[in-house]
Design the sequence.
Protein backbone atom coordinates (compact mmCIF):
# COMPACT_ATOMS: atom_id res chain seq x y z
CA UNK A 1 0.00 0.00 0.00
CA UNK A 2 1.19 3.50 -0.72
CA UNK A 3 2.46 5.51 2.21
CA UNK A 4 0.33 8.45 1.09
CA UNK A 5 -3.42 8.22 1.65
CA UNK A 6 -6.24 10.71 1.79
CA UNK A 7 -6.51 10.26 5.57
CA UNK A 8 -2.88 10.57 6.57
CA UNK A 9 -0.20 13.05 5.69
CA UNK A 10 3.41 11.82 5.82
CA UNK A 11 5.81 13.09 8.43
CA UNK A 12 9.05 14.77 7.29
CA UNK A 13 10.89 11.58 8.21
CA UNK A 14 8.56 9.45 6.09
CA UNK A 15 8.97 11.84 3.18
CA UNK A 16 12.77 11.61 3.48
CA UNK A 17 12.60 7.80 3.62
CA UNK A 18 10.39 7.76 0.55
CA UNK A 19 12.85 9.97 -1.31
CA UNK A 20 15.65 7.59 -0.29
CA UNK A 21 13.71 4.64 -1.71
CA UNK A 22 13.13 6.50 -4.98
CA UNK A 23 16.81 7.38 -5.19
CA UNK A 24 17.85 3.78 -4.59
CA UNK A 25 15.42 2.58 -7.25
CA UNK A 26 16.84 5.14 -9.67
CA UNK A 27 20.39 3.94 -9.10
CA UNK A 28 19.60 0.23 -9.19
CA UNK A 29 17.66 0.53 -12.45
CA UNK A 30 20.63 2.07 -14.24
CA UNK A 31 23.00 0.07 -16.40
CA UNK A 32 25.28 -1.89 -14.04
CA UNK A 33 28.59 -0.40 -15.17
CA UNK A 34 31.81 -0.59 -13.18
CA UNK A 35 30.90 2.41 -11.02
CA UNK A 36 27.54 0.96 -10.02
CA UNK A 37 29.07 -2.46 -9.44
CA UNK A 38 31.65 -0.95 -7.10
CA UNK A 39 28.87 0.73 -5.15
CA UNK A 40 26.80 -2.47 -4.82
CA UNK A 41 27.78 -3.22 -1.18
CA UNK A 42 27.04 0.38 -0.19
CA UNK A 43 23.68 0.28 -1.96
CA UNK A 44 22.78 -3.01 -0.29
CA UNK A 45 23.67 -1.50 3.09
CA UNK A 46 21.47 1.53 2.36
CA UNK A 47 18.58 -0.76 1.48
CA UNK A 48 19.09 -2.71 4.70
CA UNK A 49 18.74 0.53 6.67
CA UNK A 50 15.30 1.34 5.25
CA UNK A 51 12.39 0.94 7.68
CA UNK A 52 10.43 -2.29 7.19
CA UNK A 53 7.94 -2.04 4.33
CA UNK A 54 6.93 -4.03 1.24
CA UNK A 55 9.10 -1.74 -0.88
CA UNK A 56 12.13 -2.26 1.36
CA UNK A 57 11.58 -6.03 1.29
CA UNK A 58 11.61 -6.15 -2.50
CA UNK A 59 14.60 -3.83 -2.71
CA UNK A 60 16.47 -6.20 -0.41
CA UNK A 61 15.55 -9.20 -2.55
CA UNK A 62 17.03 -7.45 -5.55
CA UNK A 63 20.26 -6.34 -3.86
CA UNK A 64 20.75 -9.86 -2.47
CA UNK A 65 20.88 -11.04 -6.08
CA UNK A 66 22.78 -8.04 -7.41
CA UNK A 67 25.77 -8.25 -5.06
CA UNK A 68 26.29 -11.96 -5.79
CA UNK A 69 26.38 -11.74 -9.59
CA UNK A 70 29.59 -11.52 -11.62
CA UNK A 71 29.84 -8.20 -13.44
CA UNK A 72 29.46 -9.64 -16.93
CA UNK A 73 26.32 -11.57 -15.97
CA UNK A 74 24.71 -8.45 -14.50
CA UNK A 75 25.52 -6.49 -17.66
CA UNK A 76 24.27 -9.19 -20.03
CA UNK A 77 21.05 -9.63 -18.09
CA UNK A 78 20.36 -5.89 -18.04
CA UNK A 79 20.87 -5.54 -21.80
CA UNK A 80 18.70 -8.58 -22.46
CA UNK A 81 15.70 -7.49 -20.41
CA UNK A 82 15.76 -3.71 -20.93
CA UNK A 83 17.52 -2.97 -24.21
CA UNK A 84 16.51 -5.89 -26.42
CA UNK A 85 12.84 -6.27 -25.48
CA UNK A 86 10.03 -3.85 -26.22
CA UNK A 87 7.77 -5.02 -23.43
CA UNK A 88 10.28 -4.26 -20.68
CA UNK A 89 12.03 -1.17 -21.98
CA UNK A 90 12.43 1.66 -19.49
CA UNK A 91 11.19 4.58 -21.62
CA UNK A 92 7.77 5.33 -20.19
CA UNK A 93 6.20 7.41 -22.96
CA UNK A 94 6.55 4.48 -25.36
CA UNK A 95 3.83 2.56 -23.50
CA UNK A 96 1.41 5.48 -23.69
CA UNK A 97 2.17 6.80 -27.17
CA UNK A 98 4.21 4.14 -28.98
CA UNK A 99 6.35 5.32 -31.90
CA UNK A 100 4.11 8.27 -32.75
CA UNK A 101 4.55 12.02 -32.99
CA UNK A 102 2.58 12.32 -29.74
CA UNK A 103 5.48 10.69 -27.98
CA UNK A 104 7.84 13.47 -29.07
CA UNK A 105 5.39 16.04 -27.71
CA UNK A 106 5.12 14.12 -24.43
CA UNK A 107 8.91 14.04 -24.08
CA UNK A 108 9.15 17.79 -24.57
CA UNK A 109 6.39 18.40 -22.02
CA UNK A 110 8.16 16.15 -19.52
CA UNK A 111 11.47 17.94 -19.99
CA UNK A 112 9.71 21.28 -19.52
CA UNK A 113 8.12 20.02 -16.31
CA UNK A 114 11.54 19.08 -14.96
CA UNK A 115 12.92 22.47 -15.95
CA UNK A 116 10.05 24.26 -14.22
CA UNK A 117 11.20 22.67 -10.98
CA UNK A 118 14.81 23.70 -11.52
CA UNK A 119 16.11 20.38 -12.81
CA UNK A 120 17.71 19.61 -16.15
CA UNK A 121 18.09 16.17 -17.70
CA UNK A 122 21.71 15.28 -18.38
CA UNK A 123 22.90 15.37 -21.98
CA UNK A 124 22.18 12.15 -23.82
CA UNK A 125 19.32 11.11 -21.52
CA UNK A 126 15.64 11.09 -22.36
CA UNK A 127 13.30 12.52 -19.73
CA UNK A 128 11.03 9.47 -19.77
CA UNK A 129 13.79 7.00 -18.88
CA UNK A 130 12.59 5.44 -15.64
CA UNK A 131 15.80 6.07 -13.65
CA UNK A 132 15.54 9.75 -14.67
CA UNK A 133 11.90 9.98 -13.57
CA UNK A 134 12.80 8.32 -10.27
CA UNK A 135 15.64 10.76 -9.66
CA UNK A 136 13.24 13.64 -10.27
CA UNK A 137 10.77 12.09 -7.81
CA UNK A 138 13.48 11.77 -5.18
CA UNK A 139 14.60 15.38 -5.58
CA UNK A 140 11.24 17.15 -5.90
CA UNK A 141 9.02 15.07 -3.66
CA UNK A 142 5.82 13.06 -3.67
CA UNK A 143 3.51 15.69 -5.21
CA UNK A 144 4.85 17.12 -8.49
CA UNK A 145 7.97 14.98 -8.29
CA UNK A 146 6.04 11.73 -8.55
CA UNK A 147 3.47 13.02 -11.05
CA UNK A 148 5.31 11.47 -14.06
CA UNK A 149 5.35 8.09 -12.31
CA UNK A 150 1.64 8.27 -11.50
CA UNK A 151 0.86 9.36 -15.05
CA UNK A 152 2.70 6.34 -16.45
CA UNK A 153 1.55 3.79 -13.91
CA UNK A 154 0.03 1.57 -16.60
CA UNK A 155 3.34 1.40 -18.42
CA UNK A 156 5.09 0.57 -15.16
CA UNK A 157 2.60 -2.22 -14.60
CA UNK A 158 3.29 -3.63 -18.06
CA UNK A 159 7.05 -3.53 -17.46
CA UNK A 160 6.47 -5.38 -14.20
CA UNK A 161 4.41 -8.07 -15.96
CA UNK A 162 7.12 -8.53 -18.58
CA UNK A 163 9.89 -8.83 -15.99
CA UNK A 164 7.76 -11.25 -13.97
CA UNK A 165 7.22 -13.42 -17.05
CA UNK A 166 11.00 -13.44 -17.58
CA UNK A 167 11.58 -14.23 -13.88
CA UNK A 168 14.07 -11.38 -13.85
CA UNK A 169 15.29 -10.18 -10.44
CA UNK A 170 14.56 -6.67 -11.69
CA UNK A 171 10.88 -7.47 -11.17
CA UNK A 172 11.50 -6.80 -7.47
CA UNK A 173 12.43 -3.19 -8.23
CA UNK A 174 9.22 -2.63 -10.19
CA UNK A 175 7.23 -4.32 -7.43
CA UNK A 176 8.86 -2.01 -4.88
CA UNK A 177 8.01 1.04 -6.95
CA UNK A 178 4.41 0.01 -7.53
CA UNK A 179 3.87 -0.43 -3.79
CA UNK A 180 4.81 3.23 -3.37
CA UNK A 181 2.27 4.45 -5.93
CA UNK A 182 -1.53 4.58 -5.65
CA UNK A 183 -3.12 1.18 -6.29
CA UNK A 184 -4.44 0.51 -9.79
CA UNK A 185 -8.06 1.12 -10.62
CA UNK A 186 -10.23 -1.29 -12.57
CA UNK A 187 -9.71 0.98 -15.59
CA UNK A 188 -5.94 0.74 -15.11
CA UNK A 189 -6.05 -3.05 -15.03
CA UNK A 190 -8.17 -3.19 -18.18
CA UNK A 191 -5.89 -0.74 -19.98
CA UNK A 192 -2.83 -2.80 -19.05
CA UNK A 193 -4.55 -5.95 -20.32
CA UNK A 194 -5.29 -4.27 -23.68
CA UNK A 195 -1.80 -2.82 -23.88
CA UNK A 196 -0.27 -6.24 -23.29
CA UNK A 197 -2.46 -7.79 -25.98
CA UNK A 198 -2.33 -5.05 -28.63
CA UNK A 199 0.83 -3.06 -27.89
CA UNK A 200 1.23 0.73 -28.03
CA UNK A 201 0.19 2.86 -31.02
CA UNK A 202 2.44 2.54 -34.07
CA UNK A 203 3.21 5.50 -36.30
CA UNK A 204 6.86 5.63 -37.32
CA UNK A 205 7.06 9.43 -37.59
CA UNK A 206 7.63 12.45 -35.47
CA UNK A 207 10.36 11.14 -33.18
CA UNK A 208 13.61 12.13 -34.86
CA UNK A 209 13.52 15.82 -33.85
CA UNK A 210 13.89 14.66 -30.26
CA UNK A 211 16.70 12.30 -31.19
CA UNK A 212 14.72 9.10 -30.93
CA UNK A 213 15.16 6.18 -33.27
CA UNK A 214 11.81 4.41 -33.76
CA UNK A 215 11.55 0.97 -32.22
CA UNK A 216 12.28 -1.87 -34.60
CA UNK A 217 8.78 -2.91 -35.78
CA UNK A 218 10.01 -6.40 -36.57
CA UNK A 219 11.17 -7.09 -33.01
CA UNK A 220 8.38 -9.24 -31.53
CA UNK A 221 9.65 -9.22 -27.97
Sequence:
Amino acid sequence: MSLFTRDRRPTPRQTAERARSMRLLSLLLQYPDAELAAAAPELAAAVAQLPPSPAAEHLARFTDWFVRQPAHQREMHYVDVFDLRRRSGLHLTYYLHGDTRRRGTALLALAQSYRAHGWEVADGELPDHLPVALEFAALVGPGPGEAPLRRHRRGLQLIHHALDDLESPYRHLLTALLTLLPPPTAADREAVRRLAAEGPPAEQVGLHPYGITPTNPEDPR
